[in-house]
Structure formats: structure tokens, C-alpha cells
Write a structure and sequence with these properties.
This protein is of the alpha/beta class. Helix content is 40%, strand content 16%. It binds guanosine-5'-diphosphate and magnesium ion (MG).
Amino acid sequence: MPSKPPKPTQPAGRTVVLPDDWSATPLTVVMPTYNEAGNLPGMADALMELELPGLRLLVVDDASPDGTGDIAEEYVRRFGAERVGVLHRAGKEGLGRAYAAGMGRAVADGARYVLQMDADGSHPVAKVPEMLGVALSTRAGVTIGSRYVQGGTLSDAWGAHRRLLSRWANAYAGTILGTRVRDITGGFNLWREDALRAIDLASVDSAGYSFQVEMKYRALRRGYGIVEVPIHFEDRVVGESKMNLMVQLESVAMPWKLRARAR
Ligand SMILES: Nc1nc2c(ncn2[C@@H]2O[C@H](COP(=O)(O)OP(=O)(O)O)[C@@H](O)[C@H]2O)c(=O)[nH]1
Ligand SMILES: [Mg+2]
């Protein structure tokens, strides 16, 4: 079967310009990777080009067989350890475990804000300064790059079935947990450092994608404010989704688990 030609990453777009003391905020972008060799360079280049001198990229690679970890090391050499770091992990343990490790490291290394971002081109790099600006001006504990607030959009490649499933997954978790967060399943989230400390990453239960829901729920329970900034969510550029049945089952069970534990 002929493979689809790779699509360009999200257009660079216009970025907001922050005042100097804001753009220098120590911000670490934590990016989990598993077989993202075709996507990581585009993402890393675009992040390094942002006018955010305080931005650091931390790649969390689970020993990807396609050499993603080596590519990340090239970026460390090119931009210096101040701006790019790599956390090499022994094997594939899931998105949630990779994030918990990377976000913990980022806070320990002095980040004031930590941004979760997929490596596959789905999340718009151009929105990073705006999200940081919103976080700093509102003092929100969590600033979500949201598909489901006014102005948020989904890739044209998403058919009716996928749109409905994503909407449904959001409504499912939100209803069980009694939250009004519009994009509780989303993975493009900016965290204030003290919110992460309060959450206690080491005790997070989720191994897979339910990490996104569990983290936001924990933040709400601890009284942190959440704001949502609209984004355009694009389909992955190249490579394959790592979603599988195990992580889907975990995502179905997790809201019930969290609710039971909160009682
Ligand atoms: N380190 C690590 N990264 C992962 C793992 N599973 C997924 N990822 C990364 O997490 C991000 C989101 O995964 P993706 O497959 O795009 O999820 P989808 O968009 O929901 O299908 C991508 O950057 C993946 O490479 C994992 O087990 N370990
Ligand atoms: Mg993806």
C-alpha cells in the first residue's frame, strides 16, 4: 500500500510577543517520544525558534527503536544542554509514566512552568507564547491548549466518528468527575511549578493517556484554577499512534477510580 506523503507540521502562524521579563520565564517543554524520528526535528526546530529565551526542551524517550533518542542527543549538541535535555528511559512504559518522570525532572531542575507537548505535530508550537502569557496574567495553575473552547478546531482529516468519540470521551470523564473542564482529555497543558509539586507526580496512578484526566482532576481537587486557550489540533505528521486497547481500558476505568478515591 502506498504510504501517505508526509504533511507539513502546523503552519508557524503568528505568535504573540511577550514583554522581556515574561519571555525569559524558565519554561520546560516536556515531550515524550516513542518512535518519533520523523517528527522530532520539526518540533524541536520550531520550539528553538520561538522568542522565548527561558524555554528549554526536555525529550523523554523510551528507548525508541527508530533512533529518536539519538536525534534528541544531536539537538543537545547543537543547542547546548542549557536549552535541550534528554531523559533516556529503559523501555516503553506508557505516556503517563514518561510524563511523570519528565515533569518531575523539569521541576527539580528549576522550571517555573512546565508544558506538556506531543512530538507528532498535533500541538501548535505557535501557541506556546500565548499560553505562557495567559498563565502569567491569570496565575492559573493549569493552562490548557484546548480543542473544545470557542475558537478551538480539529484537523479536517478527522471524520465524524473520531470527532464524536473524542467529544464523548471528554464528556464521559467530565461527567463522572463532575468537572466543567472542556478539554479534560487533552494533552497540551501548561503547569505552574507549585501546582505540579502539590499534585505529587510520584503518586500518579495512570500509566497511559488517562494521565491527562488524572492530573487535571488532581489540580482541581487541590484548588488550582484552570483556564483554556483555543488551539487548532492537527493530525500527526508522520508515524503511528501509540494508542492501544490497554490504555483505552485504563482511560475508561480511571474516572471511576478517581471518583471512588475522592470520596
Ligand atoms: N516516552 C514515551 N512516549 C510515548 C509513549 N506513548 C506515546 N508516547 C508519545 O506521546 C505522544 C502522544 O502519543 P500519540 O501516539 O501521538 O497519541 P495520540 O495522538 O493520542 O494517538 C507522542 O509524542 C508519542 O510519541 C510511551 O510509552 N513512552
Ligand atoms: Mg498524536
